[in-house]
Amino acid sequence: MTKKEKSPWIWVPSLYLAQGTPYVVVMTVAIIMYKRLGISNADITLYTGWLYLPWVIKPFWSPLVDMFKTKRWWIVTMQLVIGAGLAGVALTLPGPNYFKFSLLFFWLLAFSSATHDIAVDGFYMLGLDEGKQAYFIGIRSTFYRIAVISGQGILIILAGYLEKYYDNIRTAWSITFAALALLFLILFLYHKFVLPRPASDKALITTSGLNPFSEFLNTFLSFFRKESAGLAVSFMLIFRLGEAQLVKMASPFLLDPREVGGLGLSTSEIGLVYGTIGIIALTLGGIIGGIAASNKGLKHWFYPMALALNLPNAVYVYMAVFQPESIWVIGALVAIEQLGYGFGFTAFMLYLIYFSEGENKTAHYAICTGIMALGMMIPGVISGWLQEMMGYSHFFTWVLLCSIPGLIIIRYLKVDPVFGIKKKSLQSEDT
Predict the structure, then answer these.
(1) Torsion angle in degrees (nearest 10) through CA of 351, 353, 355, 361
(2) How far apart are alpha carbons 143 and 134 in whole angstroms?
(3) SS3 198
(4) Which of 109, 119, 138 is nearest to 51 (CA)?
């Protein structure tokens, strides 16, 4: 690394914190907030489930991020827009028709966050070589998940405290979203100055003079012309089938009274479980996963990591059946699930990067994540209805069984045995 190059440590962690935060706000914090406002599980999953749509269809506008402006420009601009969307939620919650207007701002957050994802993931691949991409995959996944868990942790603890202090749920959540808007203003200013400027980060149209529409079509179609594209797409759709349902119902399960099969935790207790114990376990899992993948590569770790991601979901079956009362027992079980998730998710993200390699890797990676989002959206939309029909214990058993198809399809995926292995020269440079 030359003196002129900026260390990835000063921008990779903060960039993926910024990527994960609006996602968890739209996908999880909104669920907890609407649950606290008395909306049913079926309605919560229906309305928030459709918020996945921007991530599903983002491949259709991802080539535009390649063609116009730099990835750096898109990152800082979208962070400013995200901040405005968070401020909009904060302003509408105390007023009349808050549900309708807050959902509109959640849609703005979803679209701006999805666009931000395209730019961030493309910038990551442009700003780091293959060896460092593998080395930092665990770091980026860890900080992304720290953002996700912090949204369910610190943010929820804050909201729970404000609920008690003001004795008004809508006021409490309005202040919480105002704090988030301020956070994104700070992130916008920070990244405006610290993000590097890779020479390869250029707008395709301005450098090549290509026709935008033909280039868009060629970029999109070239993804599906790749070898084994059908098998790869099937994997992206199926692998997270169980998690897609679990992630929607985990918070309602923890919040619901014991009489209906939940654990009856308070808002602040959920924040404690996910915001402290969960973060520690997740961080360890993500770091270990990144180091392991950079030493022996994706192919070696693919199946063990997939098992580590899915099998710990069994702790929710246990909690639904036995309904433990100790917050520390619940926290330990969540830690097991988060440790496995942090370790196992490394393989999934590395495969998306691997399959995206090529001339249009930014747009192709966005297509990968869009397909993945479709696999998350459809099961998520109906998860509340399934839970209300089955009950929590049978629902979480179903979630566990849903992991089987994804584990089977891994056996048929082709992966370069050396992909992801960190070169010795890079190790000596870092040392």
Answers:
(1) 170
(2) 15
(3) coil
(4) 109
Element (H, E) at 24: helix 12-24
Q: In sequence order, what are the residues at sequence separation of 6 or more whose Cβ sits closer than 8 angstroms to the Cβ of residue 409?
A: 231, 234, 235, 238, 239
Give me the mean pLDDT over the 104-116 stretch.
93
Q: Return the SS3 of 339.
A: helix
Q: How far apart are CA 61 and CA 56, in angstroms?
A: 11
Give dist(CA 304, CA 407) in Å, integer. Answer: 10
Q: What is the pLDDT of residues 45-75, one digit of tens each?
A: 888 888 888 888 877 777 777 777 888 899 9
The pair of structure tokens assigned to 288 is 């270990």
Q: 430 is written with which tokens? A: 């870092």
407: amino acid identity, one letter: L
pLDDT in tens, 254-313: 888 999 899 998 888 887 887 678 778 877 888 888 888 888 888 888 889 989 988 999
Q: Which domains does the chain have, with CATH numbers?
A: 11-194+217-422 (1.20.1250.20)
